[in-house]
């Protein structure tokens, strides 16, 4: 991070004085989300290992750990390095780490932090074992099983068992369990469809666990799940650990999911916003704001204007976006500032250096986005 660049706010500043565009956390809503998930996983009798790819923040991770999380997940070695260097020391990399340079960094990281990693092929197992042997240490390794995501992961059943046996027989690896995450189920809008998808996942995982036992392998850890499905995996009696991440922020996409009563939204509330300023109004039909492609991710839809459901964000460009006012009873002026709920929180966060954390209309904290740009 360029330390010569100043954050868009200072502690104690009124919200109206925050420069734009800025990444905002509403601390009351954020803490309510953390507390709710902590209570729910305790009620279900599973562990919580939230996914830090959502927030990329040591401060957020520490807040989760203080509420009982057993550790965090990362996707990249560089994310794990950034968090470990800032005091977060129990990390599962829910991804395959391939290539000599990345594996060497993984091994070096494991000297100073409790790190686990996933595999889905024999070549990767051999490379990890060789690197761990050369460093004279032991790596904890999970087999990632493809439970419907159609991305990474070994086929369920015997192929997964074969990989687990290879890990168990390796001189410097420990078979630690299964990574079983179905990303495609997270945003099935219908509650019953999400529940059915996870029932299918659990049947697949259970069958594989049975085969592991037949081969003398005890599977202590079954980890996976996400913000869209955590309640199903948590209640399944199959999963031991939940990896939900976006629950801390609840972007506009997740808020479209239906609950058990068919209503959109959940008990978790949006707590992450983009604060943006109206910089031009030369038409009665729209206003121009200073947050565009370099401030917000659009892969899962447009951001939502807070406190004005009749206004819609559209046509983002590098530094601008339009707010449609055709149906809006609220009229804006140049210099007004508004909050937007991003469509997808994870890549939006990665566009910013800082979180500006507010409470009672004032800036209470400013947190680094610790792992911003940690892509390798």
Explained architecture:
The chain is an alpha/beta fold and 376 residues long. The protein has two domains: 15-24 and 266-368, Lyase, Ornithine Decarboxylase, Chain A, domain 1, CATH 2.40.37; 28-250, Alanine racemase (TIM Barrel, Alpha-Beta Barrel), CATH 3.20.20.10. 28% of the residues lie in helices and 23% in strands. It has nine helices and 17 strands. The protein has helices at residues 27-44, 58-66, 77-84, 100-109, 122-135, 158-169, 191-214, 230-234, 345-349, and strands at 22-26, 47-48, 72-74, 90-96, 114-119, 139-144, 173-180, 221-224, 241-242, 272-283, 286-289, 304-305, 312-314, 321-324, 337-341, 354-359, 362-368. The strands form two sheets. Strands 1, 10, 11, 12, 13, 14, 15, 16 and 17 form a nine-stranded mixed sheet that branches. Strands 2-9-8-7-6-5-4-3 form an eight-stranded parallel sheet. The protein is globular, with a radius of gyration of 22 Å. The mean pLDDT is 96.
Tags for this model:
single chain, 376 residues, alpha/beta, TIM Barrel, 9-stranded mixed sheet, 8-stranded parallel sheet, 17 strands
């Amino acid at each position: 991070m360029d330390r010569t660049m100043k954050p868009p706010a200072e502690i104690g500043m009124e919200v109206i004085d925050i420069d734009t565009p800025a990444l905002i956390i509403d601390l009351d809503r954020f803490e309510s989300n953390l507390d709710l998930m902590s209570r729910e996983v305790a009620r279900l009798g599973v562990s919580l290992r939230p996914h830090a790819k959502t927030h990329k923040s040591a401060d957020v991770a520490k807040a989760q750990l203080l509420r009982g999380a057993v550790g965090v997940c990362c996707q990249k070695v560089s994310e794990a390095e950034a968090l470990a260097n800032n005091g977060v020391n129990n990390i599962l990399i829910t991804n395959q780490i391939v290539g000599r340079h990345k594996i060497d960094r993984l091994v070096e990281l494991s000297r100073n932090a409790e790190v686990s990693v996933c595999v889905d092929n024999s070549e990767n197992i051999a490379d990890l074992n060789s690197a761990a042997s050369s460093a004279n240490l032991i790596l904890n390794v999970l087999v990632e099983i493809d439970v419907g995501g159609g991305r990474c992961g070994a086929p369920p059943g015997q192929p997964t068992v074969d990989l687990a046996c290879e890990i168990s027989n390796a001189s410097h690896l420990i078979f630690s369990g299964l990574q079983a995450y179905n990303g495609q189920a997270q945003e099935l809008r219908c509650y019953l469809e999400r529940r059915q998808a996870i029932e299918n996942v659990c049947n697949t995982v259970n069958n594989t666990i049975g085969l592991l036992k037949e081969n003398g392998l005890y599977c202590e850890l079954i980890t996976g799940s996400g913000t869209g499905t955590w309640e199903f995996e948590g209640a399944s009696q199959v999963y031991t650990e939940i990896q939900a991440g976006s629950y801390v922020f609840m972007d506009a996409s997740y808020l479209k999911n239906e609950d058990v009563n068919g209503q959109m939204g959940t008990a978790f509330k949006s707590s992450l916003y983009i604060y943006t300023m109206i910089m031009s109004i030369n038409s009665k039909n729209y206003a121009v704001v200073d947050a565009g492609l370099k401030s917000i991710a659009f892969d899962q839809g447009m951001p939502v204007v807070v406190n004005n459901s009749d206004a819609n964000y559209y046509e983002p460009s590098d530094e601008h976006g339009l707010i449609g006012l055709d149906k809006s009873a609220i009229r804006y002026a140049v210099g007004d500032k508004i909050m937007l709920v991003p469509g997808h929180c994870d890549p939006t966060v990665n566009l910013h250096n800082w979180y500006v954390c507010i409470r009672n209309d004032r800036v209470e904290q400013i947190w680094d986005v610790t792992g911003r740009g940690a892509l390798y």
